[in-house]
Amino acid sequence: MALINQLIDKQDSFEIVRDQISAILKTEMVNQEALALTAGKDVNLWKLTILEERSDNFEQFIGNPDIFNPIINVSFDNSSITERSSGIVKEQTTIGIYNIDCYGYSRSRETVTGHEAGDRLASLEVQRSIRLVRNILMSGVYSYLGLRGLVGRRWIDSIVKFTRQLDSPQTQEVIGSRINLSVQFIEDSPQTLFDNLELISVQVERALDGEVLINADYDFS
Amino acid sequence: MSFRDDVEKDIQSVLEDDVSGFGNSITLIDPNGVSHDFKGYSADIAQTIDPDTGQAVIGRWNSVALMMSSVLSVFPSLPIGVMDENIKPWTLIFNSINGVTTKYKVMSTQPDRTVGVITITCSFYKDL
């Protein structure tokens, strides 16, 4: 006989945090573009394509070799429960690890005196995207990722930039990197639903002489 | 003529045959801007690459094969991948099978001095 009589149709905290990370990056990058425009800067340097939980082959880098916006893919990687600060009944303190993968792309281009090498440009592109993501997520305004009460802390554990594989030369230069973001949050689960037996209203006051007075309002028979 | 010379001639007749073979017109441009049209073999294929994130990216791999003797009859040296950004790189121009013309930078070369063929790996390049 089933003991859980409520439909489980809410998102778990790890999903809420994942979606929030993507939403924060999207919202802030739109704002960064607006700020860059106001400041008279090249807006393209503040454009990122933000994706979430994608794993199909990226074909963004071919077809139109004039698009250079780095691609960001936010995905949940794993989580672990901190036993010491968790209860067995209701709430568990969980550390979730999120991979924020950044892909930079560029190509070689002629200059007046020589050329700019595509491999270096691609590497600088991915590092620029790392810079933007790190600054946004580690900003003080996002100490709790806008989810205070659910999120206890967020921390970038590591940033890794990958070198291009030597045995797979590419016509377009693509460099990948990964930001590991760890987030501490609370997970809860369906609990026993209790029926109200009595509704008692209680008002606690302290009299002038220090006596504690309790006014209770309840039905009795 | 030795057997080795015969091999080189045979390869040349295959690589540079653009009438009944796979030969394609390939323009090679040196860092000084001197260009010359050659006949050779060009490849442009899709390739799955993993930037080490576990995410597959559909990449593209372009390469060209030319006879070293033909290149050296025009240029004083073979093309190489140029790292120095103060120098213009060696570049190539050739068509895809659908007639799309694209300019590429010579990324790296693999000269085979046994049979006289130089294979050139290309990357995208944009003119000023």
Radius of gyration over C-alpha positions of chain A, nearest whole angstrom = 26 Å
Order of helices and strands of chain B: HEEEHEEE
Per the principal axes of the C-alpha atoms, what is the gross shape of chain B?
globular
List the strand order in the largest sheet of chain B: 1-2-3-6-5-4
- What distance separates the N and C termini of chain B? 47 Å
Number of helices of chain A: 2
Total strands of chain B: the figure is 6
pLDDT < 50 stretches of chain A? none
Classification by helices and strands of chain A? alpha+beta
* Protein chains sharing the most extensive interface: A-B, 41 and 37 residues
Strand order of the largest sheet of chain A: 1-2-3-7-6
Order of helices and strands of chain A: HEEEEEHEEEE
How would a crystallographer describe the biggest sheet of chain B? 6 strands, antiparallel, barrel
Rg of chain B, Å, rounded: 16 Å
Number of helices, where a helix is a run of at least 4 consecutive DSSP H or I residues of chain B:
2
Q: What's the story with the biggest beta sheet of chain A? A: 5 strands, mixed
Structure description:
The complex is a heterodimer of chains A (221) and B (128). In chain A, strand 2 (71-82) and strand 3 form a beta hairpin. In chain A, the strands form three sheets. Chain A has a five-stranded mixed β-sheet. In chain A, strands 4-5 form a two-stranded antiparallel ribbon. A two-stranded antiparallel sheet of chain A has the order 8-9. In chain A, helix 1 crosses helix 2 (118-137). Chain A has two helices and nine strands, in the order αβββββαββββ. The longest helix of chain A has 26 residues, at 13-38. The mean pLDDT of chain A is 89. Chain A is 21% helix and 34% strand. Chain A is an alpha+beta fold and 221 residues long. Chain B is mainly beta. In chain B, 14% of the residues lie in helices and 46% in strands. Chain B is built from two helices and six strands; from the N terminus they run αβββαβββ. Chain B has helices spanning 3-15, 68-72; strands spanning 24-29, 35-49, 57-67, 91-95, 101-112, 117-126. A six-stranded antiparallel β-barrel of chain B has the order 1-2-3-6-5-4. In chain B, strand 1 (24-29) and strand 2 (35-49) form a beta hairpin. Chain B is globular and about 55 Å long. The mean pLDDT of chain B is 90. Chain A binds chain B through residues 54-55, 57-59, 61-62, 65, 73, 99, 101, 103, 107-120, 162-165, 168-178, and chain B through 44, 46-53, 55-62, 82-89, 104-105, 107-108, 121-128.
